[in-house]
Specification:
Blueprint lengths: L7 H10 L3 E7 L1 H9 L14 H23 L4 E6 L1
Helix pairs in contact: 2-3
Length: 85
């Protein structure tokens, strides 16, 4: 997956440069944050034996999710663009 952490004006400039007509833009940041907050449900996928490897994976997963939530609340937004050429 390729992430582009551009501002909305940067996206609009890129669309114009590519001769794309933006028809709508939906900011779905709040819904993405809600989805991230349900991350503990995914822990059911891990084995119940409490292995060290599972614990490390859970720790990494938790840190990654919390970092993404923080970035979405403070600096970034998650947008869906719809347009035509």
């Amino acid at each position: 997956m390729n992430f582009h952490h551009w501002t909305l004006p940067q996206y609009q400039t890129a669309f114009n440069r590519s001769h794309l007509k933006l028809l709508s833009n939906d900011d779905v940041t709040d819904n993405v944050i809600k989805g991230f907050k349900m991350y503990k449900k995914y822990f059911d996928q891990f084995s119940k034996n409490g292995s060290f490897q599972d614990s490390l994976l859970k720790l990494f997963f938790t840190i990654n999710v919390k970092l993404n939530i923080r970035l979405l609340k403070k600096k970034r937004s998650y947008n869906i663009f719809f347009g035509e050429k």
